[in-house]
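dumping this here before i forget
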Amino acid sequence: MKTKLIILVSALTFVLFLTSNSFAALYNFAPNPANMYDLDHYRYYTWGWDNINLQPNEKIVSAKLTINQLYNWKPVTEENNFLYMHLLDNSGNIQPFLPNNQVGVYTDAKGGTDNFLAWGGQQILLDTYTDIDGPTTMINYEHLFSQAQLDALNLYAADGILGLGFDPDCHFYNKGIAFSFETRTNAIPEPSTILLLATGLLGGIGLRRKHA
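structure:
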């Protein structure tokens, strides 16, 4: 009986290992141009992809947006300086994205407010960056996605089309923008494979009992 129990536990452990085994992938993106035209105050920008081909069992588990050497041309004491950054969904085609990895540039007609609020449920705000000292200090900006933002990212990427939006309320110089995300893929065996494995293990147990 003890030997039978050990075999059953070993078999279940092996099956659980197969079903829980996962693989990681890292996706990196950079816009063209890399600095997105230095994020001019009088423009707002989209940066999108139409070829995000994730597998059905592949899930985005972490994501990061970075801006290298970011700085504003005026100190915050002179005016409110904000950079609004959004995750965008293209399902309603409010503003279609340009071909893969290209930057779309649009005239800012909102008088300093966030243009992407007009997208409604097809966007979420990732972060609002405020430059507290203008051109005196460059920073390497980094935003890590929260769990709620990752959930939206997985939802938006399901159709293979995904975008980011930037609306600068002042002029934000930078040396390059990057976006990356990491995925996990669960390696789930075919049902027939699991059935065959289970049948073989049970057969082995029966044969052992016969010769015991």
